[in-house]
Amino acid sequence: MRPLPWRRRPTPCLASLASVLLFAVTVDTVQAAITLNVDDPNSIKAAAKIAANGMMKYYTGDKPGDTPGNLPQPYYWWEAGAMFGALIDYYYFTGDDTYNAMTQQAMLHQTGPDRDFMPPNQTRTEGNDDQGFWAMAAMSAAENNHPNPPEGEAQWLALAQAAFETQAKRWDNATCGGGLRWQIFTFNGGYNYKNTISNGCFFNLASRLAVYTSNATYALWAETVFDWMHNKIGLIDKDYNFFDGSDVLLQCKEFDHIQWTYNAGVYLAGAANMYNFTGGSPTWEAHLRGIIANLAHFMPDQSSQILVETACEPINSCNVDQRSFKAYLARWMAMAAVKAPAFAPQIKAILRANALAAAKTCTGGEDGNQCGLKWTEGVWDGQLGVGEQMSALEIFQANLIDYVPGPVNAESGTSKGDPNAGQGSKVGPGDLHRSKVTTADKVGAGALTLGVCGLFLGGVVWLAI
Ligand SMILES: *[C@@H]1O[C@H](CO)[C@@H](O)[C@H](O)[C@H]1NC(C)=O
Ligand SMILES: *[C@@H]1O[C@H](CO)[C@@H](O)[C@H](O)[C@H]1NC(C)=O
Ligand SMILES: *[C@@H]1O[C@H](CO)[C@@H](O)[C@H](O)[C@H]1NC(C)=O
Ligand SMILES: *[C@@H]1O[C@H](CO)[C@@H](O)[C@H](O)[C@H]1NC(C)=O
């Protein structure tokens, strides 16, 4: 079997260096900084506030001269989109508007000229999943009735619709009988990879647009994606394992079998929305039941139900991206409990146990309240960063679902949509030469890939020595 491409783009040297440095931080025991009572909404809000505050210490995009929406190195653009998604939920769950202005500024700055989250600065490296995380944040803003951008600016629902439309056009029947490729541009490494997260973001977005707008076209697309993943290719197997992806050069017959929490999560929320859209159909009920049962894959200790990023936590190899994945599983478990109340008791038990476990790790860093990566430790494990903070934030606020009014839809909400949004994009499977991408961009992207691989290999050699 040929080696499959990188799951995410190669870890740049800075990121590897950061992980090494993170492990070198000494664990100093500070008085538990977060005392959490999961039965008291005020206690949960207080914990979420500390976690959000710790997360936003990393963000500099609102400072003069910096770019709104970008996190500094080593964090990729997509994770910033994920972070603003977390903050959009944070305001909804807690009512704390501290980050609303920053969030709106960042979201609007990154929409790109076609208002579809394809900003020219990112097109060298942007994948469908990267675009998807920003689009899902916009979708959350519509569902939460987040304050709308001023008239004349891009609107939340229209942004989600536009990103959806660009991705629907990229659906690639020519290879593997369907599916989205990971990368948007032919010249990017990973263009031959059809992966679970890219298709999962599209599925998640489609299912939520279906529920929000009641437009069955979106639901049909969600059905198409799930059917392709589950019945045609088997990246979602019969036991609801979510394998990472496959390669069009192998006709999608061989998989990268690694499983990540965010893949299970992104489909969990999508399936819950389809269950909701179909009025609780037996098909989607069965999918939902299967996905929830197999979350056990990420709970090595079935009695405590504490979530573990099983592919990397036990061997201390989680990269910067992977450190944030539990955040999205937490977010989407909460969404599933709301959209499929029949499954709420089961999901809420997991959310409670994990919020309590995560809170115990939040004694790190200079301020003594940064959260760790491993929730199984019961203490701070010496690791910290945006991913660790976001994961703690999301698992805390997920426990507030019973104290908020619930999502709105096109009738009860206020966000303006545009079913024709996203028609302007020229990037489809047969049309990958978007005029805005210059030859210099392509050469740059190639050089970047080569350079980064070189640095990465250098790092591996260095570590081996
Ligand atoms: C693109 O990069 C330039 C230069 O760093 C910056 O000024 C601009 O704000 C960026 N635009 C976006 C949408 O990030
Ligand atoms: C892909 O193929 C399916 C049938 O195999 C068809 O229904 C669908 O319209 C095709 N989609 C596109 C975008 O060509
Ligand atoms: C759909 O979601 C709403 C909450 O938005 C919930 O009240 C309703 O019961 C759900 N429908 C089903 C079939 O579970
Ligand atoms: C439903 O969504 C599709 C896909 O975006 C769009 O083409 C169509 O116009 C929408 N229909 C209505 C009635 O809004």
Strand order of the largest sheet: 1-2-3
> Largest sheet, if any?
3 strands, antiparallel
Ends apart, CA distance between termini: 29 Å
Assign the CATH topology of the domain at 13-76 and 165-183 and 190-409 and 444-464: Glycosyltransferase
Q: Which ligands are bound?
A: 2-acetamido-2-deoxy-beta-D-glucopyranose
CATH architecture of the domain at 13-76 and 165-183 and 190-409 and 444-464: Alpha/alpha barrel
Proportion of beta-strand residues:
under 5%
Q: Which segments are poorly predicted (pLDDT under 50) over 5 or more consecutive residues? A: 1-7, 9-31, 429-465
Tally of helical runs: 14
The SSE string, one letter per element, is: HHHHHHEHHEEHHHHHH
| pLDDT averaged residue by residue | 88
Please bin the fraction of helical residues.
40-55%
The Cα radius of gyration reads: 21 Å
* CATH class (first level) name of the domain at 13-76 and 165-183 and 190-409 and 444-464: Mainly Alpha
List the helices and strands and how they pair.
Elements: H1 13-24, H2 41-56, H3 77-94, H4 100-109, H5 128-143, H6 156-170, E1 193-195, H7 196-213, H8 216-233, E2 245-247, E3 255-256, H9 261-277, H10 282-293, H11 325-339, H12 344-360, H13 386-397, H14 439-464
Antiparallel strand pairs: 1-2, 2-3
Helix pairs in contact: 2-3, 2-13, 3-4, 3-5, 3-13, 5-6, 5-7, 6-7, 7-8, 7-9, 9-10, 9-11, 11-12, 11-13, 12-13
The structure holds 2-acetamido-2-deoxy-beta-D-glucopyranose (4 copies).
The site of one 2-acetamido-2-deoxy-beta-D-glucopyranose has 4 residues, from loops.
